Amino acid sequence: MTEVEAVSPVASGSTPYARDLSVFDTLSLPGPSELLQAAGRDSDDEDEAILQAFESREKDYHELHDQIQTSADLLTNLSSFLSTFQTDLSSVSGEIKDLQHRSKDIERRGGGRRTIEKPLRSLVESITFPPSLVSLIMDSPVSDAWMPAIEELERILSDVERRKGRVKAAMDAERIGEGLRITATTKIRLHLLSLLTPLSTSIAINLPVLQTSILLKHRPLFVFLLKRAPSTAAEIRRSYVWRARGYHETGFRRYARAVGLVRARWTEAPELMGSVSSASASHPKSSAPPSSSTSQQPQYRAASIPLGQDLESSLLASSTIDGEGVMLAFQADSKDFILPPEALFRSLMLVLLDNASAEYTFLVRFFSRSNSATTGNFNHNSSSNLPLPSPGGTGTGTGRRTRLMSESASELGAGESASGGLGRRESSLGGGRRESSLGNGNGSNGGGGGLGGVAEKDEKTEMENLWHLVFDPALTYCQTLITTLLSTPHPPTLPSLLSMIRLNETLLVEIESRSTTALEAFVIAQKMTLWPLFQKGMGANVDSLKKLADLAGGEPKPDTSLFSSFPSRQVSKRYTSLFNSIVTLSSPTEESMLFGSLLRLRQEMARLVTAQASKIKDPAQKEAFSSTIYDGVIQRLRVSFGTAKTEEEIVFWERARKNS
User: Fold this and answer.
1) For the chain, which terminal residue's Cβ has fewer other Cβ atoms within 10 angstroms, N or C?
2) pTM of the full predicted structure?
3) Domain hosting residue 61, numbered range
4) Per-residue DSSP letters for 231-282?
5) Is residue 541 situated within a structural domain?
6) What is the pLDDT of residue 360?
7) Do the domain assignments include residue 563?
8) Please, is 491 exposed, middle or buried when counting C-beta atoms within 10 Å of its C-beta (0-12, 13-18, 19+)?
């Protein structure tokens, strides 16, 4: 069936028009033969016959005419219908095309809306304050739940501030954000000040615990203040600085007083290498051999050396960070407690190092602006991500590196009250050494989390100035105590000074590894004090031994006891003790300077032995005298640490014995 047949009522044969046309199938017109027969007649007859023939069928002709007319009308109507249908089809086709175009346009617009859906949703979410956040800030006190909330508030405020010039909704949200900012700032200020209150009420609080377990956990709150309320952040920083300043000042004042009491009990004074009294020379057998370059009160030195150690080992232990714990301040209450100057110097410097490095690290991690900038969005768990050394706080009585406190407060209460709360370090340092989080870059940390560039250097300088505000009073007490340790009437011996120098060099390395650059100037100042004292002492010993050798080489005096065998033996013991101590404590970078002075001492020592031997007339006694001195020197050198310098010294004295 064609399209016309499908839609046309005529083609279906079911209309009246179709039934009228069927008459043509039964209508019979005059055939040709009938017309010819009529034509063969007369004209009148023909006309009449034709007329009769047509008249007899007039009705049929009328019907045929009507049917033809009807068919013509039907065809006209059909043509009109087809034209209308064609027009309608064209219109429908155009509408279909229009719908197709509209469909594509709608699909294209839908795709565009789907494309901007995420950015638009992100925009709405970024400038919308969730009801839970608003309720927390407005109705709840500061708690752990504020840490992620304050981060979210900071993010929303930053987005609103960035978009307010282009988005009208952001301008409306800005007013809400300002109200939340003011409320949050007020509550955070009161909360942080309440956390700092214990620092100004009692020195018994453990400052490192307060810093690591409480304050660092609240760093996101301070970072919020840095960005949204700088004046309030400055107030919090000032409050901490002055409270911590008083805390450290009190602690170090008490500790310095305790160390000073112990220092006053040490009355062992150094003697020059060539100083020999006539009283001691006249009784050589009753004089105890000196254990170092000092000999007045060797029992003090012996009592201060741990069991199983000799002098060199004791000096070496005092020149390193690792090893025994430092002096507890309450130990000064015991009148029998004594320590040599180098051990007291070590105790003071290690307590200072631990507390100063912990304080500097905290200041950088908590107050530094670059620390928050380099780590991006602040993390409320950041206190557990970055290591902090664990020195004992100045208020609780320990200076331990690997742990803060294992003792209970009751166990330390008496010690703190008597000592001012500075104390000993853990004997093992392996677990407590801090990686440098301030100097190499994580941003974790390092010297301040990888400080670099002009802004970062300014930030580092600001942190160092902040540290000095906290620690300068404590440094003053430390400097005063160090001056007391080095001063007369009982200054340290040369081995003691060299032990302090070695410890000071170790401290400089440790300061660099901890990135505690603020303390470096103080330690360098001690180096500049100790080295001249040591060089001055070495020069004085050389001069005194030279005078004794000159005296021995001159004409005999009436007091001939001064030229007996005892002065050489006494001086040789002092010489070997000093030599062994210097060999033990020397470093390759300073060997030339140290052993240059020792070479001068050796020359004067050899000259003294030769001069005294020359006074003996009997060759056998002369040889016995020289051999006794040389053998004693060699024997004492052999029991020391075996080094190349020791072997060279032994070879020299063996050659001198052979030549004698």
Assistant:
1) N
2) 0.68
3) 3-119
4) HHHHHHHHHHHHHHHHHHHHHHHHHHHHHHHHHHT-------TT---HHHHT
5) no
6) 94
7) yes
8) middle
Q: Is residue 480 domain-shared with residue 601, that is, in the same domain?
A: no
Does 498 lie in the same domain as 429?
A: yes
Give the residues of the chain that fall short of pLDDT 50: 1-19, 21, 23-24, 278-309, 372-452, 556-565
Residues 232-259 have pLDDT tens digits of 999 999 999 999 999 999 999 999 999 9
What is the model's pLDDT at position 390? 34
Q: Are residues 459 and 599 in the same domain?
A: no
Alpha-carbon separation of residue 387 from 327, 426, 434 (angstroms):
26, 18, 7
- Tell me the C-alpha distance between 609 and 632, whole Å: 12
**How far is the C-alpha of 421 from the C-alpha of 299, rounded, in Å?**
30
Residues near 629 by beta carbon (within 8 Å), at least 6 away in sequence: 565, 568, 569, 572, 609
A 10 A CB-CB count for 39 gives 11
Give the total number of structural domains in the chain: 3
Phi, psi (rounded to 5 degrees) for 52: -65, -40
Taking the mean position of all CA atoms in its chain, how far away is CA 224?
19
Last residue of a domain, one of 531, 566, 588: 531
**Radius of gyration of the chain from its Cα atoms, rounded to whole angstroms:** 55
Last residue of a domain, one of 463, 497, 531: 531
pLDDT, tens digit, 9 for 90 and up, residues 301-338: 444 444 334 566 778 888 888 878 889 889 999 988 98
